[in-house]
């Protein structure tokens, strides 16, 4: 089964929202046949992924990423942390060789100093803050401190009593490191980096955490978890952990540090004792995550303030030690073939090009019905879409509503334009998806059903025309529109003209 493609938070007044909420991807290298850096970058560009995180500062990758505009997070590996944290000059040399030598051609925006140091390399914990400060000093000396932020990814496991979130606090044994670390992050405007894995929270909960709650699946209000102190409702583990981090920082008197999720995801395959590591669950989690972040849903504590996140991770890593699930967190195999097709809508330009070419254009959920009607009228008129399949008695007439009929017209137009830029917009009420909208006898086959006249003649440049009420309508549609439901007749061309001028 193929996959689509490849995917801040701030407290109102206290934390400033990042307008550029994003989904990024981690690039691990534990593959027996790791793609060449140029192949990796080609896949990133094809998937229109604009944010990547490297676990090191590999020179070949940084060179391949040059002049792409892709925003890059690089890392000081844990094995180099002791040297960097014990010597200002070593840190300066690291920045000179791995940052200054590549910037600005390579758009480096963030440096991760180590990864989960407190739990994976506790002997380095005493020098972690020094490492942050030494790297920051080197950036200041190179006049790059305003362009590049410095932080360190923490595991969510250092947050204790994470539910209810309002009672969460950090493991007190690490406060001697965390307090100066948070002071550093606050003074430099850098985020708290947090690795959040609802899969492990679910697996370790012994049935306390429902699977749907871990997967971001919609829950009725009576099934949501309620924080008894704040009365905030939580419908997923991810939001609860992010808010737990905010509350835990607040307990140490830090209230203006944003959260950036540096790792999150779900495995698509596991051993016999990992029955919920499946393609469908991985698809569901990552699809819902992407929608949640890019829609700027925010968390119950900070609604509307998106938490940008990096998916773990780009490739399945067959040489990774551990259980089978450890090797199967990827969105792609080593050949760049999707592991599964993400169920995406409203993803903007991210993941807009499926490597299997299975993308569709649909009416957005909750879109204004008058705007949908206007788009439908335009597509079936000036857009020269053959809309006979949505006439009464035709295969795509049912369900008889504006959204369903608009989806047929939008998708037909999108494909007859060759998926040209701008051909799935319709004044903002259409979105690209990889979920096939076929239903019953109405089959969407990734191409338009009928060819009428010279509808493609004016689109040889591959760019779709803007939806414009001044364009001439289709005589076919003008003759047949009376066969559509009475609801459509009440809107008609006058509404389209009023809305689209």
Compact summary:
The chain has helices at residues 37-46, 59-64, 78-86, 88-100, 117-120, 128-141, 175-188, 198-203, 211-214, 237-251, 279-294, 369-380, 402-416, 475-480, 486-489, 492-500, and strands at residues 23-27, 51-54, 71-76, 107-113, 149-151, 153-155, 159-160, 169-170, 192-195, 225-226, 233-234, 259-264, 309-311, 360-363, 430-433. The protein is α/β, with parallel strands linked by helices.
Structure in words:
The protein is of the alpha/beta class. The chain is built from 16 helices and 15 strands. Strands 5-4-3-2-1-13-12-9-6 form a 9-stranded parallel sheet. Helix 2 links the parallel strand 2 and strand 3 (71-76). Helix 4 (88-100) crosses helix 6. The longest helix has 16 residues, at 279-294. It is globular. The two termini are 44 Å apart.
Question: How are the secondary structure elements laid out?
Answer:
Elements: E1 23-27, H1 37-46, E2 51-54, H2 59-64, E3 71-76, H3 78-86, H4 88-100, E4 107-113, H5 117-120, H6 128-141, E5 149-151, E6 153-155, E7 159-160, E8 169-170, H7 175-188, E9 192-195, H8 198-203, H9 211-214, E10 225-226, E11 233-234, H10 237-251, E12 259-264, H11 279-294, E13 309-311, E14 360-363, H12 369-380, H13 402-416, E15 430-433, H14 475-480, H15 486-489, H16 492-500
Parallel strand pairs: 1-2, 1-13, 2-3, 3-4, 4-5, 6-9, 9-12, 12-13
Antiparallel strand pairs: 7-8, 10-11, 14-15
């Amino acid at each position: 089964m193929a996959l689509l493609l490849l995917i801040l938070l701030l407290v109102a007044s206290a934390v400033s929202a990042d307008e550029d909420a994003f989904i990024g991807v981690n690039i691990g290298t534990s593959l027996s046949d790791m793609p060449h850096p140029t192949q990796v970058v080609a896949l990133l560009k094809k998937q229109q992924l604009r944010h990547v995180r490297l676990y090191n500062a590999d020179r070949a990758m940084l060179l391949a990423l040059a002049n792409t505009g892709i925003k890059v997070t690089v890392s000081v590996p844990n094995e180099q942390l002791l040297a960097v944290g014990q010597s200002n000059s070593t840190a300066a040399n690291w920045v000179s060789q791995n940052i200054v030598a590549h910037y600005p051609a390579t758009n480096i925006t963030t440096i991760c100093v180590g990864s989960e140091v407190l739990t994976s390399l506790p002997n380095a914990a005493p020098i972690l803050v020094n490492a942050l400060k030494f790297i920051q000093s080197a950036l200041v000396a190179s006049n790059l401190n305003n362009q590049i932020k410095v932080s360190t990814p923490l595991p969510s496991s250092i947050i204790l009593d994470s539910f209810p979130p309002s009672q969460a606090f950090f493991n007190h044994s690490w406060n001697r490191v965390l307090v100066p670390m948070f002071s550093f992050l606050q003074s430099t405007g850098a985020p708290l980096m947090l690795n959040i894995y609802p899969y492990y929270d679910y697996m370790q909960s012994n049935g306390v955490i429902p699977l749907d709650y871990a997967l971001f699946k919609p829950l009725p209000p009576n099934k949501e978890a309620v924080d008894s102190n704040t009365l905030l409702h939580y419908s997923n583990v991810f939001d609860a952990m992010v808010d737990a981090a905010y509350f835990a920082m607040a307990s140490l008197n830090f209230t203006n540090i944003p959260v950036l999720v540096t790792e999150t995801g779900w495995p698509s395959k596991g051993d016999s004792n990992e029955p919920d590591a499946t393609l469908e669950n991985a698809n569901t989690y990552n699809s819902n995550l992407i929608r949640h972040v890019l829609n700027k849903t925010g968390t119950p504590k900070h609604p509307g303030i998106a938490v940008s996140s990096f998916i773990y991770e780009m490739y399945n890593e067959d040489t990774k030690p551990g259980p089978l699930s450890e090797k199967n967190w990827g969105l792609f195999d080593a050949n760049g073939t999707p592991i599964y097709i993400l169920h995406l809508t409203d993803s903007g330009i991210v993941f807009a090009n499926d490597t299997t070419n299975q993308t569709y254009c649909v009416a957005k959920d909750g879109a204004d019905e008058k705007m949908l009607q206007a788009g439908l009228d335009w597509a079936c008129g000036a857009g020269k879409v053959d809309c006979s399949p949505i006439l009464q008695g035709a295969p795509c007439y049912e369900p008889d509503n504006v959204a369903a009929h608009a989806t047929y017209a939008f998708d037909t137009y999108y494909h007859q334009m060759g998926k040209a830029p701008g051909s799935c917009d319709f004044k903002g009420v259409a979105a690209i998806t990889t979920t096939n909208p076929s239903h019953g006898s109405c089959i969407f086959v990734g191409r338009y059903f009928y060819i009428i006249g010279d509808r493609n003649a004016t689109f040889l440049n591959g760019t779709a025309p803007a939806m414009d009420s001044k364009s001439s309508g289709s005589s076919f549609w003008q003759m047949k529109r009376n066969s559509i439901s009475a609801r459509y007749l009440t809107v008609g061309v006058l509404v389209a003209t009023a809305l689209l001028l």
